[in-house]
Amino acid sequence: MPLLPEEPQIHESAQGPRVTPANGRTAPTPRPVPGPRPAAPPRPGRPGPPRPAPPAQRTPRDAAPAEPGPSAPAAPVASATPQIQLIPASAEGALDAAEEALDLLLESGRAPGEVLVVTTGAQHPWAEHELSFGEAAYWAQHDAGDDVFYADATAASRAASRPVVVVAVNGGSDSAAAAALPLALSRAGALLIVCGDPQQINAVLGAGV
């Protein structure tokens, strides 16, 4: 029976001989129908997670402070023995030196409410301004404790302790300085900065300055 051109004969084997149709043309070799592809073998290193989990689990434990306890008792020790720093200055320049020391303290991270500034001579301009509104308003600023507080040698005895006390020996009698410096030392929790004549300051506070 002759084969029709539109119905080429398909052999079971794809490598079988080509079949010539009745019209004399060579029929193309039929392509085998692709069956289901086998599962591709897993690539090396792909089955596991792309990054190991243990480093991520260790990071929080490593970031936490190992021993937070021992650092806490350090504050009472520092408050019992405040450091003393001396900034040489004349009586006329002591207030400016105290202001520069205050700026450095605030730039280093000290909060304004941690600093008390004491003058032995003329009042600081801020204190004069606040006192112009009355004693009650002036001491209300002190009690708020959220800003630098300025007091003269006589008012410093009423001021509460603060971590840092800056003293400007900007005049006044020798007795005023002699009274203000030990008082400022007792009010300083961690640091006492004294701006003034070194000989006068050493005579009052001793050779440890």
Describe the structure.
- With about 210 residues, the chain is an alpha/beta fold.
- It is built from seven helices and five strands.
- It has a five-stranded parallel β-sheet.
- The termini are far apart.
Oligomer: single chain
Q: Give me the count of strands.
A: 5
What is the structural class?
alpha/beta
Largest β-sheet summary: 5 strands, parallel
Question: What's the order of the H and E elements?
Answer: HHEHEHHEEHEH
**How much β-strand is present in the residues?**
5-15%
Cα radius of gyration in angstroms: 44 Å
Mean of residue pLDDT?
A: 74
Number of helices: 7
Uncertain segments: 10-17, 19-23, 26-79
* Amino-to-carboxy terminus distance: 126 Å
DSSP helix fraction: 25-40%
Strand order of the largest sheet: 1-5-4-2-3
Principal-axes shape call: globular
